[in-house]
Each structure stands twice: as C-alpha cells, then as structure tokens.
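To close the chapter, one final illustration. This time we ask the reader to focus less on the individual chains and more on the assembly as a whole: which components sit near each other, and how the overall shape emerges from the parts.
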Amino acid sequence: MNGSTSSPRSSRPSRPRRPHPPKRNPGPERPPQEDPARRAALDTLRAVTKRDAYANLVLPGLLRERRITGRDAALATELTYGTARARGLLDAVLAACSDRPLAEIDDAVLDALRLGAYQLLRTRVPAHAAVASTVDLVRADRGSGAAGFANAVLRRVTGQDEAGWIDEVAPDEESDPIGYLAMSTAHPRWVAQAFAEALGSRGEPLRAALAADDTRPIVHLIARPGEISADELAAITGGDLAPYSPYGVHLADGGDPADLDVVRERLAAVQDEGSQLCALALTRAPLEGTDERWLDLCAGPGGKAALLGALAALSDATLDAVEKTPHRAELIRKATIGLPVDVRVADGRDPGLDGGYDRVLVDAPCTGLGALRRRPEARWRRQPSDVAALAKLQRELLTSALDLVRPGGLVAYVVCSPHLAETVGVVAEVARKTGAERLDTREFFPGVPNLGDGPQVQLWPHEHGTDAMFCAILRRPA
Ligand SMILES: C[S@@+](CC[C@H](N)C(=O)[O-])C[C@H]1O[C@@H](n2cnc3c(N)ncnc32)[C@H](O)[C@@H]1O
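The assembled structure is written out below.
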C-alpha cells in the first residue's frame, strides 16, 4: 500500500454508500472544462467496460461524429488504447492509492481514474493537467463529491513514477520473474505464463514478446495474386515490400487503408503478413497426385480464403470455404467475388461435404493471444478458462479436416495464438489419434529466420513483425 493513503481499507466501517449527486450538478467550485480528446477517450473506455465493445471499433466512429481531428484525434487514440492496454497495472496502482476497494468505486469514476493514471504514469502530459482534466470529467459525469475523491486518488498516484509504482505493486522480480514481467508490461499473469511456456523463456525474449503487444502494428497489405504485383502495390501506396511474403507490402504510416483505391477495387486487401505466410505454406508443401480441390474449413471473414482462391485460380484449382456464422460467410462471398470459391454455411466439424480434398486449411477459432497488439482491451477480456473449450473445438476441427482430406493430402492447422494448449497440444494429440504425419513446416516458410526447432512454426511480433501465428502442416497417411 502507498504510505500516503489516508484511510486504510481495513479501518473503514462498513456503511451504505451515499448515492452520487445528480449528474447535472457541476459542483460549486468551477464549471467543468472538458477536453474533447479526453472525453472521447473516456466515452470509448466506458463502452468497453459497459458493453464489451472493442475500443478500436468505437473510437474512430466517435472521432468522426464529433469532428475530432489532427492532434486531438491522435491524443484521444493514444489515451484510449494506452489506458485499455495498461488496465491491470493501472488498477494495481489505483488500488494502492484508493481508500476503498476498486470493486466499490463507481464504474464511470474508475474508468476516468484509469485514464488519469495512464496519463500520469505512461505519458508526458504534465501531472497537473492529467489530474485536473480527469477531475473535470468526473465532476461532469458524477458531481463534485466524486470529483473530490478522484482528485485525492490521482494526487497519490503522482507520488511516484511508473518504475516506482511497479516496484511497489509487482511481485518480486527474483522470486517471480513472470509475475514481475506481467505487471510491468501490463499483462494478465496467465498470458505472460503462456508466452513464457511457448518461448521457453522467462527472460529477455519474454519481455520483448510482451512489450511488442504495446507497439502499434504497421498495416500490412496483400497484393492479390494474378491482379497486381507486390512491387506495383508498393509503388502505388508508397509502402515497402514485406520482408517474407512475396505478396506483402507494409504501409509506412497514416490513413485508413480502406480508403485506398487499390483496396476498394479489390486488387489488394489488409492482411497481416503472418496470415499470408500461413496460407502460403499450405500451397507450398509438396503433394503427390491430384492438386485441384482445396478446402478452407473456418473461412470467415475470408482473408485467407481470398488468397487461397486467387492462387487456386492461377493453378486451375477450386476452393470450398466453410463458415459457421452466416454473416461471416457473407463476408467471404464479398472477399472472393470473381474467384473459384464456393462458400457454404456449416459447422466444420460436420460440414456435410464429400471429402477427398487435396489441401485443407483449418484456421481455427482461438484465444487470439497472438494479436493482442491489435485489440487494446483483449488481454483483459480473455480468461484462462476459455482455453480448454477452444482447444476441444480445435481438436475436433483438425480431426474433421484430416477426415476430409484425401489419403496423402495436406492439412494446415493455423491459430493466431502461441498458447501451447492451442498449438502443439492440439496437433500432437490429433496426430497421435489419426496417425497423421507432422511435416517440417519451417521448410514452407522460406527466408523466415528464427523458426526454432520445428516441426511446427510459431511466428512472433517481436521476431518477425507479424502477429504470433502458429502453423503446422500435416499429411494424412496414404
Ligand atoms: C480465426 S477465424 C478464421 C479467419 C479466416 N481464415 C481469415 O483469414 O479471414 C475462425 C472462423 O471460424 C469460424 N468458426 C467457429 N466455429 C466454427 C465451426 N465449428 N465450424 C466452422 N467455422 C467455425 C468463426 O466464425 C471464424 O469466422
């Protein structure tokens, strides 16, 4: 606990909480001075807390609606995403600075406190501005009593910088290195533990992997094979050729890629380079016999299906795309217009298909722990209890894929997660039960460094600049 905390939790008598003053009472001291960037940030954080919204979907709409642009928009974005990512660390600090448990603090006040604490600990916003602007927001939303409380808590936060607070609230680094790294990089402990197990590290690689979740990902585009080359796409967009995917382009900065003419005309699309590489790996693995019927068993919203469909068109093959959710199946249809792709709404575990496919992709539903940098709040929303149910579904889908592929045919199992229970755990068990052969998948990622001991491939943001995609290619026994 912070020594300056005025009334320790244990000494507080339990008594009914007073209702907050009416919302419209601005308090006697001064009228609230709302800053549009911080208001947009707080309103987005409220939507994340109240209705499980995605910050990166809510905020752009709010900015547009309120005509917030330029530096204000940049500030709102930085504060919103930064606060959502750092939530666990901010909560630990706020708990140390508050004389009541966080669970007893009004949601709206707590979200504002997080926003204020984030500015104090992780930005260069002057402390007085961070405190005053947050107190103004709280006063406007919850009145002067709550504003006084927020002011007191945030003043305690100003007592130390981030490093000082980490020393105080994190587990001991020597005896619990994973717990320490989890707190200092603002990750739930179970996520840090899962990364540590996948990396085989509790040291620098783990720190780098966790830190990479706080970096803003560069937009990756894919030049649709047969329509436009990566060189042409790079020249049109001013981007750089991707280091590993022959179809990939990295966009330097700024702007909404959906506004690009090449994207609107479907010559290119937004797709992480790791996703491109995993879909390509399936097509690169050598196959004896026929090679004309491909299947994507979990295809929505259609990113990999569009790439596979374009490659299928170039090699006289066809692709069947299965998706359980009708609206996502519709997205596949849109993404694959003009390609030899047949979309079917079905459960991939029993899709009612004849089988006999030459190549099958299983891009299974997963925790998404490999793409935490894309969804600011995701690390706090996922629960360790999600993993077992997903792993069961993943095993069933992979088993179904091996059933649908012809003898000697190939299956790529892909997830956007490094969690061992979703990756090697699934592949090892299904391979054992079905007798499928695990190929050295690293061979189908030519030029990509640091792929470990194989046979599977685990990509990492801090190593490869991609999402943490996992890929294993299996062959059904002939
Ligand atoms: C990781 S996403 C696939 C991403 C896609 N391959 C792409 O590149 O755009 C997994 C998809 O599987 C779908 N899904 C979930 N359970 C399924 C099931 N039992 N059968 C088929 N699809 C399922 C989800 O709706 C989701 O669209």
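The first helix runs from residue 36 to 51. The pocket of S-adenosylmethionine is lined by residues 275, 298-304, 322-325, 328, 347-349, 363, 365 (CB under 6 Å). With these observations in hand, you are ready for the problems at the end of the chapter.
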